[in-house]
């Protein structure tokens, strides 16, 4: 499972859909990104049931925030801090929530992108990733991300990364959702597929250079 | 059935190096801003330094989640101290607090290697160096973290600290000027960055003196 997030004037993120069960690709239609309040979006890799529990924690958090009814609303920075404390606390009890979380959002014109993992390690950056994304996508993002990335270019960049992951991560499927977060709110796209090409000469005749192999 | 070994560890090493040098009327505290895990770089711009009080600055490397938790605990305790005593904590007081906080988790330690720097009540520079469970000592200079094995011998050579066994006790603070000490720190990190894979990206330097606090940055190699 991989997650990619990109910080532009809004925040963008795609995620690949599947949920494995050991080496079985058990579920191919799971949504791993959810909005949190008005300003943020959470995405998760790892244990799906633990993610569902985290969503329940966040529901409760947002409920109590709304009950104050004072015009204030928790922004992405605050939600990220809360999640970090939750993850760290469970790690301290030797009973971790087995997830890598990504938290992004925009509030009062300020964009935010952060991540936290199951042992509580957390940071903010202009682009973050989970799992294989750290190995395959972040180098591309480091090379091609810049401050004035337009929304369309951001999409293209993320799709470029997701394509690489699709080719190289054996637990990936060609079904992803992209999200866009702006001051106005969070929009999660419908699942879609990337164009891929398996039309490589090496795949057509794999044994041509290796006598006796199959 | 073979004996199962635990394969989940509550710890990780996020790398990085910290250095502090005490002067006659200043203190320099520095750390790189790279955060890594295994052979990956997570981010190139994460600060390991925190100002705990007017005259106390702590730099910590090791397991980032523990470092951050430790910083929050000390910040909170300092707030309470200010409420109760109506003054800032002195650097030696903060030093003791840090030691006690670390030892409190002696049997599930904060994997945090700290260096505390600041000015004592006489305005002289002070540096305290720690291990993960709170053992500490006031020194003239110190380094902790992944690059400390590369930096410490160099500092020993350049700063020629007097033996703590001498009587009468000789001052451990360096006679170097503030700018000479800052240059020395930059040299340390440039060198450590060459050979330590966990050190690099950017160097953050804080200088505390009678005028207040000053921050400086220097680019380091990103490979």
TrEMBL record, chain A:
<dbReference type="InterPro" id="IPR050115">
    <property type="entry name" value="Proteasome_alpha"/>
</dbReference>
<feature type="signal peptide">
    <location>
        <begin position="1"/>
        <end position="18"/>
    </location>
</feature>
<dbReference type="InterPro" id="IPR016295">
    <property type="entry name" value="Proteasome_beta4"/>
</dbReference>
<protein>
    <submittedName>
        <fullName>Proteasome subunit beta type-4 isoform X2</fullName>
    </submittedName>
</protein>
<keyword id="KW-0732">Signal</keyword>
<dbReference type="GO" id="GO:0000502">
    <property type="term" value="C:proteasome complex"/>
</dbReference>
<keyword id="KW-0539">Nucleus</keyword>
<dbReference type="InterPro" id="IPR029055">
    <property type="entry name" value="Ntn_hydrolases_N"/>
</dbReference>
<dbReference type="InterPro" id="IPR001353">
    <property type="entry name" value="Proteasome_sua/b"/>
</dbReference>
<keyword id="KW-0647">Proteasome</keyword>
<dbReference type="Pfam" id="PF00227">
    <property type="entry name" value="Proteasome"/>
</dbReference>
TrEMBL record, chain B:
<comment type="similarity">
    <text>Belongs to the peptidase T1B family.</text>
</comment>
<dbReference type="GO" id="GO:0005737">
    <property type="term" value="C:cytoplasm"/>
</dbReference>
<dbReference type="GO" id="GO:0051603">
    <property type="term" value="P:proteolysis involved in protein catabolic process"/>
</dbReference>
<dbReference type="GO" id="GO:0005839">
    <property type="term" value="C:proteasome core complex"/>
</dbReference>
<keyword id="KW-0647">Proteasome</keyword>
<keyword id="KW-0963">Cytoplasm</keyword>
<dbReference type="InterPro" id="IPR016050">
    <property type="entry name" value="Proteasome_bsu_CS"/>
</dbReference>
<dbReference type="Pfam" id="PF00227">
    <property type="entry name" value="Proteasome"/>
</dbReference>
<dbReference type="InterPro" id="IPR001353">
    <property type="entry name" value="Proteasome_sua/b"/>
</dbReference>
<dbReference type="GO" id="GO:0005634">
    <property type="term" value="C:nucleus"/>
</dbReference>
<comment type="function">
    <text>Component of the proteasome, a multicatalytic proteinase complex which is characterized by its ability to cleave peptides with Arg, Phe, Tyr, Leu, and Glu adjacent to the leaving group at neutral or slightly basic pH. The proteasome has an ATP-dependent proteolytic activity.</text>
</comment>
<dbReference type="InterPro" id="IPR029055">
    <property type="entry name" value="Ntn_hydrolases_N"/>
</dbReference>
<protein>
    <recommendedName>
        <fullName>Proteasome subunit beta</fullName>
    </recommendedName>
</protein>
<comment type="function">
    <text>Non-catalytic component of the proteasome, a multicatalytic proteinase complex which is characterized by its ability to cleave peptides with Arg, Phe, Tyr, Leu, and Glu adjacent to the leaving group at neutral or slightly basic pH. The proteasome has an ATP-dependent proteolytic activity.</text>
</comment>
<keyword id="KW-0539">Nucleus</keyword>
<comment type="subunit">
    <text>Component of the proteasome complex.</text>
</comment>
<dbReference type="InterPro" id="IPR023333">
    <property type="entry name" value="Proteasome_suB-type"/>
</dbReference>
């Amino acid at each position: 499972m991989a997650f990619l997030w990109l910080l532009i004037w809004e925040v963008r993120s795609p995620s690949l859909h599947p949920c494995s069960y050991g080496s079985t690709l058990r579920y191919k239609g799971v949504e791993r990104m959810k909005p949190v309040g008005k300003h943020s979006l959470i995405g998760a890799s790892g244990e799906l049931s633990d993610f569902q529990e985290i969503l329940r924690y966040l529901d409760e958090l947002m409920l109590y925030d709304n009950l104050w009814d004072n015009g204030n609303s928790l922004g992405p920075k605050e939600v990220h801090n809360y999640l970090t404390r939750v993850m760290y606390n469970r790690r301290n009890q030797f009973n971790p929530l087995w997830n890598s979380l990504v938290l992004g959002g925009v509030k009062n014109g300020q964009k935010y992108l952060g991540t936290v993992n199951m042992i509580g390690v957390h940071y903010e950056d202009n682009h973050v990733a989970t799992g294989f994304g750290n190995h395959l996508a972040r180098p591309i993002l480091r090379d091609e991300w810049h401050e004035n990335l337009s929304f369309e270019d951001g999409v293209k960049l993320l799709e470029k990364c997701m394509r690489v992951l699709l080719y190289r991560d054996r637990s990936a499927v060609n079904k992803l959702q992209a999200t866009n977060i702006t001051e106005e709110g969070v929009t999660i796209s419908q699942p879609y597929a990337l164009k891929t090409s398996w039309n490589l000469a090496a795949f057509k005749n794999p044994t041509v250079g290796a006598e006796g192999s199959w | 059935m073979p004996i199962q070994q635990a394969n989940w560890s509550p710890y990780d090493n996020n790398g990085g190096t910290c250095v502090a040098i005490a002067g006659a009327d200043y203190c320099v505290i520095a750390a790189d801003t790279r955060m890594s895990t295994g052979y990956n770089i997570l981010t190139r711009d994460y600060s390991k330094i925190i100002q705990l009080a007017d005259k106390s600055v702590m730099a910590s490397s090791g397991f980032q989640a523990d470092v951050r938790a430790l910083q929050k605990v000390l910040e909170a305790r300092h707030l309470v101290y200010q409420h109760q005593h109506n003054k800032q904590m002195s650097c030696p007081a903060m030093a003791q607090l840090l030691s006690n906080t670390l030892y409190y988790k002696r049997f599930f330690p904060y994997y945090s290697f700290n260096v505390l720097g600041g000015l004592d009540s006489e305005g002289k520079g002070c540096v305290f160096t720690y291990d993960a469970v709170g053992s500490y000592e006031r020194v003239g200079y110190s380094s902790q973290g992944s690059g400390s094995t590369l930096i410490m011998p160099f500092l020993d050579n350049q700063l020629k600290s007097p033996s703590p066994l001498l009587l009468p006790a000789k001052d451990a603070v360096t006679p170097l000027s503030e700018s000479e000490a800052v240059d020395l720190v930059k040299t340390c990190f440039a060198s450590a960055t060459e050979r330590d894979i966990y050190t690099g990206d950017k160097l953050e330097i804080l200088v505390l003196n009678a005028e207040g606090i000053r921050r400086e940055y220097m680019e380091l190699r990103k490979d």
